[in-house]
Amino acid sequence: MTAAELMEAAREARRLSYSPYSHFAVGAALECADGSVYLGANIENASYPATNCAERTAFFRAIADGKREFRAIAVSGGTGANEQSCPPCGVCRQVMREFCKPGFAVFFSDGEGGFETFTLDELLPCSFGPEHL
Ligand code: THU
User: Is 8 an annotated catalytic residue?
Assistant: First the structure.
């Protein structure tokens, strides 16, 4: 799947968002090494810290389904129908770090109708991972 196709899947996944508190709807599309794609959305909670981000929803769905190798993730977020810049939060970067290689590709909406492209290593340099334990 191309980066643009994965971003389109992430945009569609925003419809799955449960975000009655922030109204900031985030969708994610995670591509596994076998080519399968898992969608995720943010799931908020009346106890705000219990909220789960879209990226982690996608990862946890895939991991619970037995997937362990991943190629790329796309993320789209914004208020209502308005797509804004939406880089992954620090907690989600660390979850990616657990399962992905440094070159894992991360695409996220830039707020101008396009998307930005980074590797995981660029987004989380000098990171702590499984090999440190
Ligand atoms: N959110 C995500 O889903 N992913 C991110 O990487 C950043 C933030 C969600 C969490 C919350 O539901 C809303 O966006 C506002 O913070």
Answer: no
Instruction: Write the class of the CATH domain 3-132.
Output: alpha beta
Residues with CB under 6 A from ligand 1: 19, 22, 24, 26, 42, 44, 51, 53-55, 88-89, 92
CA distance 120 to 114: 19
Pocket-testing residue among 24, 52, 106, ligand 1, by greatest number of atoms within 8 A of Cβ:
24
Residue spans per domain, the chain = 3-132
Give 2-53 pLDDT, tens digit per residue: 999 999 999 999 999 999 999 999 999 999 999 999 999 999 999 999 999 9
User: Counting beta carbons within 10 angstroms of the beta carbon of residue 76, is it exposed (0 to 12), middle (13 to 18) or buried (19 or more)?
Assistant: buried
